[in-house]
Amino acid sequence: MIRAAVVSYGNIGRAAVEAIGASPDFELAGVVSRSAECGMRGNFRFVRSIDELSGVQAAILCGPSVHIPEIAEEILKKGISTVDCFDIHGEVFGLFERLDAAAKKGGCACVTAVGFDPGLDSAVRALFEAAAPGGLTYTDFGPGMSMGHTVAVKAVSGVSDALSVTIPAGAGVHRRMVYVVIEDGADFDEIAKKIKNDPYFVKDETVVARVPAIEPLKDMGHGARITRKGVSGTTHNQRLCFEMSINNPALTAQMMISAARAVLKRPPGAYTILHLPVIDMLPGPQEELIRRLV
Amino acid sequence: MIRAAVVSYGNIGRAAVEAIGASPDFELAGVVSRSAECGMRGNFRFVRSIDELSGVQAAILCGPSVHIPEIAEEILKKGISTVDCFDIHGEVFGLFERLDAAAKKGGCACVTAVGFDPGLDSAVRALFEAAAPGGLTYTDFGPGMSMGHTVAVKAVSGVSDALSVTIPAGAGVHRRMVYVVIEDGADFDEIAKKIKNDPYFVKDETVVARVPAIEPLKDMGHGARITRKGVSGTTHNQRLCFEMSINNPALTAQMMISAARAVLKRPPGAYTILHLPVIDMLPGPQEELIRRLV
Which of these, A70, A99, A287, B196, is most buried using a 10 Å CB contact count? Predict the structure, then answer.
């Protein structure tokens, strides 16, 4: 059994607890949370620090991306392997290098940026290039909530609550549907203009709508479509397409649990999903997996 | 540069020569063929035996599945790594075990069953299970030619030429469209009945049509659709779909070249595509691949 701790208990953390419970080869050591009340809840334990849990082999880091580098480094140095869902694309390589040093120092392994995208999508993009090295890949997201864009809207003065939904417009272009609750006396037109000029939105078609409340609009469903039209050898027009419609926190958490299985089999250091043999991400004997899946 | 030999020069062998030519990090040592005329042709060399070629690191085995076990074993024992497109699903694990012993004896590595399906499809099926471990996966093939079914029809007495095309009917069910040229005086109804009762066809809806010639009907295009509706953690209705429409020999050959890149980085032994980290299948520095694909 792989003994894993869940670190941070938001939507993804809750889904990680469920995914551990549903995995035949995992057991939950406990949940590390700075805000939840400590002690037993149901059949698992909440603690303030991972040091309070015994025999943890893998820490599943479910907190927001901004906190992941520091938390991962700290846990890796204790000799506990980590899996995280860091999702700031431009910063993945820097984090990978930083965590590689920490993991080697701790004598353990980590896999970074494992979720929906980066994560499953990254593996599909790489596989598509292996099949057709020439050509173009487009990743279209949605429809679904974008956390980064939502946070950017909430920061606009006069906005009391917000939700930004990503709508795929094809070939990697997206429309943003922004729903806002505005403060009494605030100027909606002024707010809409500010949002459209925000760096997060300025390059995309953006529609801003005023709503009385955000909570009733929330839905964790999300989607992605990856298409590649490319060249295998010298043969053009090879067409590959991947599409998913999923509950985002559940997919992210499951990918992290599957990746944890694989990373515990690797030598010390940092990995991305591209480095993990997919057979190591699945439970069960190799013979059965080869017979069933190859 | 990876120095590779192409073994067997049919449709897949030709595509493998093209894929090697199109790869920045490969060079063609030559083509091993029992039937082609020996000597230089264009800018590459045809030989009878791989022993006539120098410095070969990887042999790309493009011959029919029935000959692969023997050829692969023989080449592995010489210390040359192999990649093959063996495609008899039920026999992959047995071959994997047999080649594992041969590769370890030769101090080299091999990857077996790398093509369209088994191959790219296998990797997708495994990745889908990592994302949603509960549920069902269906693989639908076509429309495209089936070599195995075509050979079975050609063996029916009274048939002088044939082509079997696979039509996807959904959820892993297929219809077979069989085109036959019959010998003078042969009874078409009798032949059609025999084909429909053949073990290759008896379980599928099969339509047999008489045509004057097969050659004009041939088209190397093929397709596949893999769908999984499954459970991530405890969350149901996670939907994943992969679809491709491709030239089959070109895709198969390209997958073998990409896999050759990866297998040369592994310790001696046998591998399947499920064992290969996808990052090792792609050319170029790790940093660039992580920045672009993760």
Answer: A99
Q: What are the φ/ψ torsions at residue B85 (nearest 5 degrees)? A: -115, 35
The Cα-based distances of A43 to A39, A188, B28, B233 in angstroms read 10, 48, 61, 17
In order of A4, A67, A77, A224, the CA distances from A57 in angstroms are 6, 21, 13, 32
Q: What is the mean pLDDT of residues A267-288?
A: 98
Q: In what order do the strands lie in the sheet with B134-141?
A: A134-141, A221-232, A235-247, B235-247, B221-232, B134-141
Least CB–CB distance from B244: residue in A123, A240, A253: A240
Nearest CB to A293; choose among B134, B274, B278: B274
User: Of B78, B80, B112, which Cα lies nearest the Cα of B95?
Assistant: B112
The type of residue at A217 is L
The domain ranges of chain B are 2-118+248-288, 134-232
Q: Which of B233, B245, B283 sits opposite A18 (nearest CB)?
A: B233
Mean pLDDT, consecutive 10-residue stretches, chain B (294 aa), reads 97 97 98 89 92 97 95 98 96 98 98 97 98 98 93 96 97 97 97 96 97 96 98 98 97 98 98 98 98 98
> Taking the CA of residue B129 as centre, how many other CA atoms within 13 Å lie in the half-sphere pointing to its CB?
21
Question: Which of residues 132 through 171 in chain A touch B, CB cutoff 8 A?
Answer: 132-134
Query: How close is the nearest chain B Cα to the Cα of A189, in Å?
Result: 38
Q: What is d(CA A85, CA A113) in angstroms, rounded to the nearest whole number?
A: 5
Q: Determine the distance in angstroms separating the CA of A169 from the nearest CA of chain B, rounded to an integer.
A: 19
Q: Which of residues 264-283 of B touch A (CB under 8 A)?
A: 272-279, 281-283
Q: For residue A46, name the pLDDT band (cuts at 50, 70, 90).
A: very high
pLDDT in tens, B23-72: 999 999 999 998 878 898 888 899 999 999 999 999 999 999 999 999 99
The verdict on a CB contact (< 8 Å) between B290 and A258 is no
On the question of pLDDT at A38 being above 90, the answer is no
Q: Does A232 touch chain B (CB under 8 A)?
A: yes
Say yes or no: A185 contacts chain B, CB-CB below 8 A: no
What is the architecture of the domain spanning B2-118+248-288? 3-Layer(aba) Sandwich (3.40)
Q: What is the CATH number of domain A134-232?
A: 3.30.360.10
pLDDT at A35: 84
Query: Residue B72 in 3-state DSSP?
Result: helix
Predicted local distance difference test score (pLDDT) of residue A94: 98
